[in-house]
Amino acid sequence: MKVTKAEFIISAVGPNQYPEDALPEIALAGRSNVGKSSLINRMINRKNLARTSSTPGKTQHLNYYRIDDRVYFVDVPGYGYAKVSKTQREVWGKMIEKYLQERETLKLVLQIIDLRHPPTKDDELMYDWLKAYDLPVCVVATKADKIPKSRWQKHLKIIKEGLVLRAGDPLILFSAEEGIGKDELWAQIAQYAELAEETKGISPDTSEGENGIN
Predict the structure, then answer these.
(1) Global model pTM greater than 0.90
(2) pLDDT: is 52 or 23 the higher one?
(3) Residues with Cβ within 8 Å of residue 24, at least 6 apart in sequence
(4) Disulfide-capable partner of 24 in 9, 35, 59, 107 (CB 3.0 to 4.6 Å)?
(5) What pLDDT score does 80 carry?
């Protein structure tokens, strides 16, 4: 998908602040500092629209980014933020759960996981929670450029087995640095957000390919 317009809209803390234009929403979930902002910037070909930080827990709201006036990326607070107080984690947790459970325009959750490491307990709990509520999930294994290409499939298999990935949930290998997996991920987003005409020629099938495993 060729993005011609992308803009930050709002940092929301509750439903009264969510956009009301009914555009489809794609949520990005992952542990703190896993690279959600870098992924957003790569997907829209911008360097700094989504601000990256080396400080875990910096994202404290639901950050809305509107893409071509057709779809939103919604960056949710990272989980596993050990340095954040228990009270704050509970507040964020309730906000995230309410959004994921009740937002009618939410079409897909991208669960971002670091390809270099096995899924953490928090990753496993998040995936199980998403599936318990029957939410559509696409797992994105990012930072692929940090390990040799010869080890990609091994690490994808570790993630698949660690999450006990359900049949039909895609697992896409991605690199924000090199753009690996960008087209495959846009194809998945297009499928759920009904943007297929914008990604003509890109197949959403990632089964057993170089950049994905199903």
Answers:
(1) no
(2) 23
(3) 70, 71, 72, 105, 107, 192, 193, 194, 195
(4) 107
(5) 66
